[in-house]
Structures are given as C-alpha cells and as structure tokens.
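Reviewers of the previous submission asked for a worked example of the structure-prediction workflow described in the proposal, so we include one complete record here. The input consisted solely of the amino acid sequence. No template or homolog information was supplied to the procedure at any stage.
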Amino acid sequence: MPDDFPKIQLAINNASPGDTILVANGTFGEQLVINKTINLIGSGINQTILDGNNMGTAIRITTDNITVKGFTIQRFTTGIVINQTENILIVENRITEIWTKGATYILNSRNITLNKNTIINNESPGINIQNSNATQFSQNTVAFNVGIGITATNCRNFTAIDNQIESNLGDAIYCSNVYNFYIIENTFALNDYRGIWATYSNGTAYHNNFIRNRENARSIMSNITWDNGYPSGGNYWSNYTGNDIYYGVDQNVIGSDGVGDAPFTLPQEGEQDRYPLMGNYTEQTTTLNSQNYTISFVSNSVITNLYVNQTDKSLYFTINNPAKPSGFAQVVIPKSLMWCQNIGEWAVRVDGNLTNRTIIEDDNYTYFYFATIQGIHQTKITSTNIVPEISTSALILLVICILLIAIYSKQNSTSQNQTRLHKIWHPQIKTNPKNLAIID
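From that input alone, the workflow returned the following structure tokens.
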C-alpha cells in the first residue's frame, strides 16, 4: 500500500476493510464513493472541507459498517446518500448549501445513526429517510433549510432525541406511514409549518419543546402518545393557555407541579397531551465516581451552574429569571443519585432560605416544584442520602485492574495483523510533510 495519496478517493480505493482514513486540512473538490468498510475521519468541520461547486453527490455510501466524521460538506446537489446499507454512523459534520434531495438522503437501509451534526442553510430538506428501519438521530442541529427539517416515509423504528430543529421553511419533522417512532427531548422552534406533522403513523412524543411554530403539531389517521404519564409529563407547548394550580394524576390536589391542570388538545383529530409542561424541558448531567447522572428541569427560567456536593448531600444550581415577574422550576432527581427515606426530609432552599415546595415521587425519581421571583437565585436541594464516594483504596484497585486489562489487550493485539498506515496529502499542502494525515 503506498503511503501518500493526493485524493481521498484514491485512499478509499486502496484501503482494506477495517482501515481508518484520516484526512488532512484542506478543501477537496471530490465526489466520494465508499464501497468498503472503513472509517473516514476529517480533521474537523473547520479544517477538512468537501466542496462540490454546486454539482454531484458529496458522499455515496453503498456498503455496511461505515463511519464519516469531521467534515464540512458544502455546495453539492446532494450531500450524503446512504442506500441499501446498515450500521452507518455520521457524526460531527457540517452539511450546508445542498440543493435537491436532501443534505442526508437515506433509503432502503437500517441502523443508521446521525449524531452531533449541523445541517444548516440548505436549499433542500435537511434529512430525507425512505423505506428504512432503525434510524436514530440525536444532538443534531437542523436549521434554516428550505423545506422540511427531517422527513421519514415508509419507515419503522424512527428515533429522534435531543435535536434542535428550528427556522426551517417547512415542518420540523414529517412522518408518513412510519411505524413506531420515538421523538423525545427535542426543541422545535420557529418552523414555517409544524413542529411534528404525522400521517398514517404511530409512536410516542414527549419532553419536547414546541415553540412558536406556525402550528405546533398535527396528526391525521395516526395513533400517537403525547405524554409519558404522570408525573413525568408531556411536552411544552408555547400556545398552551392552561393553569397550574393543582397536582396529581387527576390534577385535583391543591399545589402546583409544573404540569398543566387541563390537557393540551391537538387540532384535526383531537389527540391529547394529558400532562402538558408549563415551561421548557431541559436536561443537565453531573458526574460522580465516573458515573453520569441526568437532572431534568421544567422551567420558565435559565438553569446554570449545576453541581453536586457529596459532603452536604446537596444539589446546587442557579436560576436566572431576568425578565419575568415570577419564575418556577420543576426539578427531577434520580433516586440512584440522592434519596430520602421519608419525603418530608428533603429541604429546598432558595438564596439560603427554606422555600415552599411540592414533592412527588415515583419508583425511580423525585420531583420538586417551587416558585421564585424575578432575578438570579442560588438554589440548593438537600437529601439525607447520596451515592457514596469511592474510597482511595478502591480507586487504586480499580486503576490497577484497568491497567492490567489494557496490557493484556495490547499483548493480544500484537498477535493479529498490524493496522495499515496510510498518508493523505492535499495538493495545496503537499510541500509540508507536517500536514500529512495518517491513516490508522
């Protein structure tokens, strides 16, 4: 195998299945076909650019088990085409100025994942999926596209989690004849048509934020569950006009809980979100003993500076409400992180003062609701129990075990074929060997 390749496609053609191609900085005017199992890794969206000069398809994937990461893909007729394949990962790319079928066009495929991509300013739909199964989209930004943000037609097991889909000249997500979709924790804002538009489909949608779309959601001839039951709740709807005076499964016990007292009814066929949220749904993560714990919030304020103090068994965060005369927060803490034997042992303090609160429990979480006034407020929630710290001796033992496993794995790998090394250079940087990329 030659060391240096002036073109990405030459490196693909000469690679063996399982190789990783690392592409150097530069702008490449190529249309790529990936027809063998490889990892194609750019140097980052600001460093490695595929520019099509408004022609052709940027990347066409025709085989299984492919990863594409770290590219800006711009000025093509079509961005990435995935056809009749499975186990594809598209991660941390920027796709822009695509003109026709879609920034990403997926058809007749299964187990396709798009994660942490920015799909923006395209003259086409952002993501177009047809006749596919087990497609998963998470932490993508899909915005300012001419047409629909994500469209899925004749698909099964479509999942969209924690995406920001906004300001598209169409629906945020359109599902037609989709069986078993799962749409949670997304923000759909300022889209020219709907946040979700579903026809002849079934699935679940909750913990989404629907913010000032022309119409927040609509379904026809579909069966959709719009909430996760109580107390987990449903979605935030910017056009919901109900009150929050009561709490409980039937919303008939005096006390607010961050959930609307009356259902939100969707137009057309009258489906309902039984437990609409009164503020935006967000999540933040804290880490203890190398374990991540997710804390969720429903609030009309901004939540920052989240951390846990194991010594005083408390969760700390800041509530920032600079504009509204009053604020509120629903905070959801997993019992695997903090817990009390009796619900009355919890203490909620705002700016050092105990505050009135509503506390609700289910099997896995504790839910807190409390009100604030305008301004910035330091908040502390204290339990009687918290996950214990790992002792120093246990930590040392863990490190030793990890090192032994790593040594064993390294020794074992030497008995296998060595990974192929390649280099790719770009004509613009060919005279500088320090810019050569190594294919691992």
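The chain has two helices and 44 strands. We consider this example representative of the routine output the project will generate in years two and three.
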